[in-house]
Amino acid sequence: MTLETYIRAQMARFAIEEGGRHGGVTNMLAIAMVLRNRVFAGWGDWVEVIARAPEKRGTVYKDGEQIATRMLRSTAARTLLNRIDEVYARPDLEDLTGGALFYVHPGENVSDWFKREIIDRPDDHERTAHIGPVWFFK
Q: Is 137 strand, coil or helix?
């Protein structure tokens, strides 16, 4: 296995876990695009951005709430796996999120830092997309 294959697999795992909570393949692709946008914005390389992605979640989930394993056999997850190479390798791929760096499901428990630093500062963090129940911000 190459490092690039590993990175793509980790990106897909995170996107399936996060996006699967809120909808189908479109939400999964959007989460993968947020990771890509963070790399393009200089937050670190792919490994760093994916490893630190949970730290930037806007939504607080119950401890141990993992859905990736039950989502893996879904049609949405299979579609994402077929498209993850595009997200990773094609900077010209249309960004569903409008260049977002953050996301949150406002109907769930939103972290205090996210409210304070992202939602309450719309001049600094414009809302760029609304996909399913999830809001995306620059």
A: strand
pLDDT digits (tens, 9 = 90+) for 61-107: 776 555 656 677 778 888 888 899 999 998 888 999 999 999 999 98
State the helix-helix crossing angle for 25-40 and 75-89, rounded to 10 degrees: 20
CA distance 116 to 79: 35
CA 4, CA 45: separation in Å to the nearest integer? 12
Query: Longest C-alpha distance within the chain, in Å?
Result: 43
* Residue that is written with structure tokens 């993968």 in the block: 32
Tell me which H or E stretch contains 105: none
Distances (CA, A) of 72 to 7, 8, 69, 114, 124: 17, 15, 5, 29, 36
What are φ and ψ of residue 137, in 5° steps? -135, 150
pLDDT band at 134 (very low <50, low <70, confident <90, very high): very high
From the list 113, 39, 119, the residue with the least C-alpha distance to 14 is 39
